[in-house]
Structures are given as structure tokens and as C-alpha cells.
Please model this.
Amino acid sequence: MPTASPAPIRLGAMALALAAWGCSAEESSTGPSAEPAPAVAALATYVVRDLGTLGGPFSSARAVNAAGVIVGNSRVPGSTLPHAFVWKNGVMSDLGALAGGHSEATAINDDGVIVGWSTIKSGAMRGVRWQNGTRKNLGTLGGRNSQATGINVFGVIVGWSETASGNRHAFIWRNGVMTDLGTLGGTTSQANGISRSGAVVGQSTTASGERHAFRWKDGVFKDLGTQGRQYSLATAINTRGQIVGALGPMQDAVGEELDFVDGFLYYQEAFTFVGGTRPTVFPRAISPVGVVVGQAFDTGDEPRAERAWVWESGSVTALPTLVPDGLDSHAGAYGVNRAGTIVGFSAAAAGRSHAVLWRRQ
Model:
């Protein structure tokens, strides 16, 4: 598989990236190319639509399913604690929260089942499933906190939970049971996405303490390695088994270079760099046909200078924002469906940011 020159990217997005990762469907045995399907236009242009908020000043969309139903989180009137939302047919609805009053939706499957997390009365976090108007607390692996980050078409959920020892471990939740996936030999792991066939991707520490991207299937871990970088992590997997994620700075990086990260697409044991030429490129989701979306940063920029992008057929397109381009026109893309509808957030008027969708023209 041909690869492009790596484009180093900044770690300023990392804290945001760990909060939400896309889910997807199953790997195909047909052996597709790592490039998106020819039907996807490489030079498409996009228009942005403001999805609004639940009444507060800020909102962000995190995922979109095949029917165009969108989930995310939004501030609500009179509170600084965001609530999870679902947006359907032009209407944004509050999904509510557990007793702690703060919730976020991170993924939705094609049946409309939504997952994410919410605080409880003690202030701890719990993974949550929203289905048919009800909320279900998914519990933990014995520790204080958990978050759900992905769900497949069969309703199998993945995420992370603290164990009784306080370490964060990746989990898979099915038939009402949360199972610890373990690690690559280290103390911590986190699952960020799951395919239709049950392949899970994320990151884990190794016995030597390094952080590596992994793929897990039927009890077996595959270490994706780091390509000689300081670390790697996987954020999403699609129907073809194509995995996207990020590679950290070079081993000999110093100073500002320690913030450089490269976006990658991993398929058939090969890495392709994706996401353009900015110093920081962070892929967040991949569609069933191989369209990748994410965020880009310039080294030294404040978080408000983030840019949303889409990578398709080897070409990168910057996505438009709700305000004129400039230092305050920050945006990020977090989800994409088979039709190419992209969701995320954009700067809005008066210094606010709103959940948005981008549609191809």
C-alpha cells in the first residue's frame, strides 16, 4: 500500500480525542483497497449546517448513523453541565442524565441505540445506554468510573472502566455483562470503537510501559505497533476492517516536536498517513467506505484554532465553519456515515461553538 509523507501533528487535541471515538460495522472478507470507494468524490465541496443547542451556548455532535440521526452533547439553560442529545429530522432532544446531571452521547448504531456516559450522584462517571426512551447504567469493572465509547449494529458496546485496583481497562458489554478485555501486558487499556463482527480497537500500555494501538477479536489482541514513534492509538474501525488512529512524535523528538502526531489508516498490515500537512492531524472516525474525518492543529495554536477536515480518495478537504475563517473559526469533525454526512462542531457567533453537520455538494 502506498503511503504519503507523514504530517506531524500536535498533541493539543489529545485530551479531547480520548473523550469520544467512533463506532462502525464489520470487516469484509472481500479484500478492498485502503482507499475509499471510487463512488466517493475526491474533490467534493461541503456546506455546513448549524444544529443549534439545547438552549445553552455550546454544543458538539459526536456521531451519526446511516439514517442521519446525530448524537452529541449540549449545554442546557441554567447549568454548566452538558446533557447528551439526539438530533433527528431537524429537532434536537435532551436525552437526560443519571443523578449527577452531566451526560454525553458518544456513539449511535443504525437501530438508533445510543451510548455514552453520565455522572451519578457521587460525581463518578458511568457508561450509559439510551434505548427506547430509557437510560441504562452499564456499571463498572469494580472501580469508580466508566465510559461507553462505541456500539455496533448488534448492540455490543465497548469503552473503558476502572477496575477495583483503580486501573483503566477496555471492556466489551453484551447481554447485560461487562467483560474486561485485559491489556497488552501493561496496566491500562481503552476501547474506542467496535465493528459489526466484534473487532475492537483502542490503545493499551505494554509490559514496558509504552502505549500501543491494538485490535482485539475473540479474546486475541493484535499489537499494531508504533512505526518507531513514541506511542500509537486507534480511534475507529469500519466495515472493511480499516482502522484509523494517531502515531506520536519520533523517538528523538525534542521541544515543540514532542507535540507532533500523525494520523494514520491501517489496513492489511500497512500504514497510510492521512489528514494533510498541518503539524497536528488527528483522525477521529472512518465511514464504511473509507472516508476519514478529524481535526488539524498548527503547532503553538490555542485550541480555538483547530480545523475540521475530511480525507477521501487520498485528498484532504478543509471543512467550512459557521463564521468567517480566522483565529476564532475553530472546528472539529467527529463522525461520518456511509452517505458522507459529517458531524462535529464549529465556532458560531459571539464566541460560541455549536454542533454542526457537513453535507457534500
Remarks:
- Residues 42 and 305 are 25 Å apart (CA to CA).
- Helices lie at 14-17.
